[in-house]
What we know:
Number of helices: 13
Distance between the termini: 11 Å
Number of domains: 2
CATH class of the largest domain: Alpha Beta
Structural class: alpha/beta
Order of helices and strands: HEHEHEHEHEHEHEHEHHEHHH
Number of strands: 9
Bound molecules: phosphoric acid mono(formamide)ester
Helix content: 40-55%
Radius of gyration: 19 Å
CATH topology of the largest domain: Rossmann fold
Largest sheet: 5 strands, parallel
Amino acid sequence: MDLLGRSYLKDSDLNAEEYEAVLDLAARLREEKRSRRERRRLEGRTIALLFEKTSTRTRSAFEVGARDQGAHAVYMGPGETQFGVKESTKDTARVLGRMFDGIEFRGFRQSDAEELAAYAGVPVWNGLTDRWHPTQSLADLLTMRDHARRPLRDLSVCFVGDGAANTCASLLVAGALMGMDVRVAAPAARQPAPSVLAEATTLAAASGGSVRVTDDPHAAVAGVDFLYTDVWVSLGEPDELWDERIDLLLPYQVNVDLVEATGNPHVRFLHCLPAFHDTHTEIGRRVFEKRGLRAMEVTDDVFESPASAVFDEAENRLHTVKALLVATLAGDGG
Ligand code: CP
């Protein structure tokens, strides 16, 4: 793997060997951390974390990952910099690139991530845009590999719900790249963009994987190893969309009935989080008061069940982001 100096803006920026190598490095770094033998490979480096949207996991993964490896991270939250309002993306890239060794960007436009990478002169890591969530899929695939204890090419995953969202796009492309059987169950209005599907289909043809999109959730999940869902209104979309999305996506809720439809007693549940599985959030309470729903994309009994791997998946954000930092800033990480 030679990722030194490279950016990671979308899943297919890595080839299958590189992707697997990042997962292997993440597993190795996880073991080092757990056994308190972690070697600091990024001593003296400083990275910028430029966020146009809020975050718990992605910010934490970059901050803790950098700190564990001896690097310093500077967080710039929504509205805290001149970016986009008083300063162009191109100028921001050239300024941050003079001061930092790498830039994490979470924002709206994929074109901003690409422009930052084109002009910064240092690696840029996409921490989520409206199009892709490629650091999330690294953690997802590592979690699937861990739980199944089988190679990714032998595994199947079905994303159920908002198939047009960035998390689904990244899962689809990353899974196809790695030879997985990837399925999407979503209503016609919220299926993956044709360009995403075309890219995933091409990658699956090369890797021996498969890609299938349907509007029938029960048929889609038959025999699957992993069930995956995400929130029905994504970060950055307006709150006004909740009613429309609930009407559209309620038949795609991951509940006990859908878990049983897999026919797989060992099926595992994944979610990138945060999740609306109860009424213990502001939005969850609002939806309950208006619609009488106690959960949205996943019911609490599934979320809290032994089949749920969501907190392993959240922890793996740290190990995979750290692997990405080490690979792109220090080389192989050996
Ligand atoms: N899954 C994810 O990206 O979480 P955050 O929005 O908290 O970073």
